[in-house]
Amino acid sequence: MAEEVVLLDFWPSPFGMRSRIALAEKGIKYEHKEEDLRNKSALLLQMNPVHKKIPVLIHNGKPVCESLIQVQYIDEVWHDKAPLLPSDPYQKATARFWADYVDKKIRSFSFSFFIYELGGRVWKTKGEEQATAKKELIETLKLLEKELGDKPYFGGESLGYVDVAFIPFYSWFYALEKCGNFSIEAECPKLIAWAKRCMQKESVAKSLPDQQKVYDFILEMKKHFGNE
Amino acid sequence: MAGELVLLDFWPSPFGMRSRIALAEKGIPYEYREEDLRNKSDLLLQMNPVHKKIPVLIHNGKPVCESVIQVQYIDEVWHDKAPLIPSDPYQRAVARFWVDFIDKKMYELGSKIWKTKGEEQANAKKEFIECLKLLEGELGDKTYFGGESLGYVDVALVPFYSWFYAYEKCGDFSIEAECPKMIAWVKRCMQKESVAKSLPDQEKVYEFILQLKKVFGIE
After folding, report:
1. Where is the GST C-terminal domain (chain B) (predicted)?
2. In chain B, how many domains are there?
């Protein structure tokens, strides 16, 4: 029974990157379809009528929406290779907690563009608001650094659910640093060390866009929305 | 293997109600501890240092935070009775999608209904009803979202029913008139002891909201 897997995606989306990484970790062949978010395809609107957002994972014609739900689905269906979630219920709950934390605090890179929170505020605002946003972002990253501790990955010895949920945002760090005029590595060296470790994995390196490219994209968006 | 189970909670919280229902469905005894949110206990701050919120489920001294994570945890540990989450990965993904939808929409829209007035309130009411209609569509002709028995989506959604009367009074509208199928589903759920015992009286919730409105200086 040939599996048909399609991913409707948008290249700078950290959410899309999560599913790309999960599929790559499992060695699953799939068709990657790039969406133009200003001109969404009929397929996207049909497969995600509720939110009309990417990424959408389509498995044998059936859609799975929301990136973390996709990663869990991929992990459950293709469970025999590279498990991402722990099998122990308590460790699973802990992994879910931190993935949820990433979503609550750093998920602001939403491409509807009108729902900017933490990360978004770093380049959209000036002065005091930006300073506050930077401070909050650093606090969030430091907490995640603390959770990582001395482990090579959040998942322990191998890439896990929280790593997959979080590493995509690394591709946005350069853009954040340039716009916010600060160094994330100076504040969170252990986190950057972790990010570089992840980037040595093919599944991650091939799933994340070049940071300069992301920065250029942000500059375009800023121009387009008349920001600064 | 119940071990020691404690739930730090706050009686009107729909999120706390989810865990109460899940524990009741599985017939698991636990200690319920009411938190005063204006004066959070050391235990709460110790067990949920990141968000400092209820509910917190403490199992053998180890905390599980976030209600949907708790429900999944309860379902996985006590997997032999009253399964809540489907075993099929695709059905599971669908159930998770709707719970995520409920989390993204219901609480915030509901809050706007009792906190705001005029156009903002009108928009919140409209969107709230649209969400319920969408959920009605997902329910279809099933007895419960979980099919023949209470499932993950039912547990995630039914707690908000305890706030419906408050929303209706504050927003001056009838949810039953707009979404009769939803109310029929609710009444089916309320016939289950696990649900009936976990939800507070709607009148009590309304009085609580009136108190909050006073405290926040909302007319």
Report:
1. 88-208
2. 2
* Domain shared by B104 and B191, yes or no: yes
Give yes or no: residues B38 and B107 share one domain. Answer: no
- Whether residues A89 and B90 touch (CB distance < 8 A) is answered with no
**Residue A184 in contact with residue A173, Cβ under 8 Å?**
yes
Residues B173 and B140 in one domain: yes
Torsion angle (degrees, nearest 10) of CA A23, A28, A31, A37:
-10
Are B100 and B43 in the same domain?
Answer: no
Q: CB of B50 within 8 Å of any CB in chain A?
A: yes
The answer to pTM > 0.90 is yes
CA closest to A59 among chain B residues: B90
What is the length of chain A?
A: 228
User: What's the ipTM?
Assistant: 0.95
A90·B66 Cβ contact <8 A = no
Q: Write out chain B residues lying below 8 Å of A59, CB-based.
A: 90
- Residues B24 and B202: their CA atoms lie apart, in Å, by 20
Residue B201's domain spans which residues?
89-216
Contacts of A77 in chain B (CB under 8 A): 89
- Of B52, B78, B104, the residue that ends a domain is B78
Do residues B21 and B155 make contact, with C-beta atoms less than 8 angstroms apart?
A: yes
B16 and B115 part of one domain: no
Kindly give the confidence (pLDDT) of every residue in chain A, 228 residues in length, as a single tens digit, with 9 standing for 90 and above.
Answer: 468 999 999 999 999 999 999 999 999 999 999 999 989 999 999 999 999 999 999 999 999 999 999 999 999 999 999 999 999 999 999 999 999 999 988 765 433 333 333 445 555 556 676 777 788 888 999 999 999 999 999 999 999 999 999 999 999 999 888 888 889 999 999 999 999 999 999 999 999 999 999 999 988 877 776 554
